[in-house]
Amino acid sequence: MINRLCEKIKELKAPVVVGLDPMLSYVPEQVQKKSFAEYGETLEGAADAIWQFNKEIVDSICDLIPAVKPQSAMYEQFGVPGVAAYKKTVDYCHEKGLIVIGDVKRGDIGSTSAAYAAGHLGKVQVGGKKLSVFDEDFATVNPYLGTDGIKPFADVCREEHKGLFILVKTSNPSSGEFQDRLIDGRPLYEWVGEKVAQWGADCMGDSYSYIGAVVGATYPEMGKVLRKLMPKSFILVPGYGAQGGKAEDLVHYFNEDGLGAIVNSSRGIIAAYKKEAYEKFGPEHFGEAARQATLDMIVDIGGALERAK
Amino acid sequence: MINRLCEKIKELKAPVVVGLDPMLSYVPEQVQKKSFAEYGETLEGAADAIWQFNKEIVDSICDLIPAVKPQSAMYEQFGVPGVAAYKKTVDYCHEKGLIVIGDVKRGDIGSTSAAYAAGHLGKVQVGGKKLSVFDEDFATVNPYLGTDGIKPFADVCREEHKGLFILVKTSNPSSGEFQDRLIDGRPLYEWVGEKVAQWGADCMGDSYSYIGAVVGATYPEMGKVLRKLMPKSFILVPGYGAQGGKAEDLVHYFNEDGLGAIVNSSRGIIAAYKKEAYEKFGPEHFGEAARQATLDMIVDIGGALERAK
User: Fold this and answer.
1) Closest approach of chain A CAs to the CA of B209, in angstroms?
2) Buried/exposed B12-32: b ≥16 CB within 10 Å, e otherwise
3) Does B24 touch chain A (CB under 8 A)?
4) Would the pLDDT of A242 be above 90?
5) DSSP states of B45-80 as a string?
6) What residues form DSSP beta bridges with A164?
7) pLDDT by residue (tens digit) across B8-61?
8) Domains plus CATH for chain B?
9) Is ipTM strictly over 0.90?
10) A 279-298 near B (Cβ less than 8 A)
11) Interface of A with B in 38-57 (CB under 8 A)
């Protein structure tokens, strides 16, 4: 899957992933109204609204980008119907040829991580059958529990040719509270990054490992260091746009082959119609606004990479 | 909710929580067969099997213990039907008067943690309505992202009188890889523990904070230190039994009031019928085996606490 990600990024000239994080407040009123008319102001209604919203977003951008990243929290908050909308979204994105990064940030002790890994990336044994479940292509994973928590995911990735992005340095303001603390003179995120490189060494695709890292766009100096520390690990970069990360800051997250990183934008794309720059589209054309914002993001990042050459 | 947990522990003399982690391999064949006969060897079939299994376990032990801890991974691995079984389990446990600790180990950047917090502990806004979703009483949370990731959960807990258990020192063998690394001479888990105490100071119940910690039974020396570092935080202690933690090691997780800790056992209880000590019950009486194992665990821990007085 990491090979396919590399190919698609090269083909589309777009190291870009769109975060499908459909807060209900991003969903235009006409979409919400229609879903509520059918299902009431219920979890089913909310789940239908985010699914209809996603569908139009995906239809509008699927030819531009290699991958999407649905954030499980935004679905799980609507309970069982929300989780069903998550699964429907994953399947629909696959139909449209997109790679799906499940932003689930799971991570637990060994046997429990094995269950998450089976459910999200692998197959579960039910009686005599092996069944695919959520079937994302990549999942994000939390490293706090160490190797035991990661290994079951890595095992499934090897078997299924899927991949991981392990949290190394997150994009949020307080990420430094623990992640930046110095251990033998080096911040914790570097130690985690080094482990990601080690874990990834056993999981190599053609040029990159199946096991990548999450490094926030909001900490470019750290991104630069981590890029060198994990040369074969793809970096998933959240925090561009709405959270403050800028294209020129992100060039150091990439390797000289122009690969090695994929930059995420969520609300900057899916709620573009609410931004001044795209408000001309209006809420009824939120898909077109998302398309334009995606095109602009691709140009923004492509330009920065070009200038850095 | 922390007050209710304290009361129930005192009333039942049982600082014990049973982990409802129904791996399909724990579910006796007769239960699986019945579910598969009705739903086929499908995710629905697996979900029904674990639900039927849970129901009998809960019926067998609900009068003995204050709380249960369903592990979300074991449900999520069976997809949407599995998540529906999780929700059914939470609701059924509530009907039976049990406190429910959702072992979800979520944690993300602020806005995303807010969605998890709303979905698991709070309410979501859908149109003009505020709806409860999974509605557990406590949730486990991962601290790697720092205060931003915790605050939205704490806010919901204050509003809803619910609670958290934040991972401090986990029970798995490799938990030390990052958690034990020294920062200014003290291990990371102590820094996290100190933060838990700080976060918890704003969320006080009568004697304990709503915001507790997870400290594995497998590291009793560390449990002793953490007990002192977080005197007002309840400690959820996984790792007793199957993972190797012993009752006499756990006395230091408690305060002098006999409270402050709640010890979890999962497979040691729910799959007791598979253990030599309880195999006389046979797979058809797995509920009774679980009941006996629960009674034995309560005696074991109660005895150790008594001897330590």
Assistant:
1) 22
2) eebbbbbbbbbbbebbbeebb
3) yes
4) no
5) HHHHHHHHHHHHHHHHHTTT-SEEEEBTHHHHTTHH
6) A139, A211
7) 999 999 999 999 999 999 999 999 999 999 999 999 999 999 999 999 999 999
8) 2-302 (3.20.20.70)
9) yes
10) none
11) 41-43, 45-46
